[in-house]
Amino acid sequence: MTQLSNGCRLCPRQCGADRAGGTPGYCGVAEPGIYAARAALHLWEEPCISGETGSGAVFFSGCPLRCVYCQNYSIARAQVGKPISVERLAEIFLELQQQKAANINLVTPTHYTPQIIEAVTLARTKGLSIPIVYNCGGYESVETLRSLEGIVDIYLTDFKYMQSEPAERYSRAADYPEVARAALAEMVRQQPEARYDDSGMMTSGVIVRHLLLPGHVQNAKAVVKYVYETYGDRVWLSLMNQYTPLPQVTDFPEINRKVTRHEYDRLIRYALSLGVENAFIQEGGTAAESFIPAFDYQGL
Q1: How far apart are CA 243 and CA 260, in angstroms?
Q2: pLDDT per position as a tens digit, 255-293
C-alpha cells in the first residue's frame, strides 16, 4: 500500500493525492477502503469471457480516465459506491465462483490495485480457482501492471485513441496513445498467448476493445492498424458499435448521436483488409442503455 501512503502514483495521472489521509485522487476516490457498486454475474462481455453462466463482474467506483461519454458515468465519477474491506472483496470473489461465474471480472480496478492483489491472494488460499480478468480503460501505469503479474490471467483492455486530440477532448488525457501502447506491451508480455478451456472459455490472454465513436472512424482505423501490425493474432480485437449518447455529452454535439451502420461497416471492412482474423464484432443496432447495469450494490 506504499503507493497510497506516500501519495498515489497508481495511474498515469501521477496525481500524488494523499488518499491514505482521505484526500481524493483524480479518480475521485480516497482511502481507506474499497468502493464498489455491484458484484454479479454479467452476460454482456465477449463470448469467451461471459459464456453461458456469466462473468463474475465487480464494478468498482471511480476512474482515472472519467471519459465524458462513459456509459458507467455515475460510478466513474464516484457518485455511487459502497465501502467494502479487502476481506469482504475476497469473500465476494468466492461467492461469485460458487454462483458458477466463468471468471472474476474486475471492472475499472486500477486505483484499487494494492487491495485487489491482497484480496485475490487471500481468496486463492480459500479456494478461488477461476481466472482473474482485469477490465480497464487502457490508461495504465506499466509499474502498476507489473505488480499484477501472477495475479491477472486475462487483460480485457480498451484502446480508445491513437490520436491525442480526441484523447484530450473526451478524456483529458492527451498522452493516452503513448501510455496505452506501453501498457498493452506489458499486458502482452505477461500473457503472450490466448489459452482456452475445453468449453472455449478464455483462461489467459489479452483482448483489446475499441468503442467506435461517432465521426471518429479514422481514429478507430489507426487503433486497429497499430494493434494488428504490432501483435497480429496474438491478441483478440473487440470492435464495438454500442456507443450510447447519454445526457452528459450534450456539450459535445459531434458525439451526441449513435454510430451509423456505414461508419461501423467501414471499420470492419478495414480490419478485414488488414488480415485481422481474431476479432469480435457486434451485429445490428446495439446502442442502448440496456448495456448499462443497475448500480444498486447487488452482491456487496
Answers
A1: 10
A2: 999 999 999 999 999 999 999 999 999 986 555 544 678
Can you give the C-alpha Rg of the chain in angstroms? 18
pLDDT in tens, 122-133: 999 999 999 999
DSSP state of 58: E
Q: How far apart are CA 31 and CA 27, in angstroms?
A: 12
Q: What's the pTM value of the predicted model, to 2 decimals?
A: 0.95
Q: How far apart, in whole angstroms, are the C-alpha atoms of residue 4 and residue 125?
A: 25
Q: How big is the chain, counted in residues? A: 300
Q: Lowest-confidence range among 25-29, 92-96, 132-136?
A: 25-29
In whole angstroms, give the CA distance from residue 242 to residue 239: 9
How many whole angstroms separate alpha carbon 185 and alpha carbon 182? 5
Residue owning grid cell 447487488: 298
Domains in the chain, start-ordered, CATH in brackets? 36-291 (3.20.20.70)
Q: Which residue has cell 452476460?
A: 43
Q: In this prediction, what percent of the chain has a pLDDT beyond 90?
A: 84
Return the bridge partners of 138, or none: none
Cβ neighbours, 10 Å, residue 261: 11
Q: Say which amino acid occupies 226.
A: Y
Task: Say how many CA atoms lie within 13 Å of 127 toward its Cβ.
Answer: 7
DSSP helix/strand/coil, 234: helix
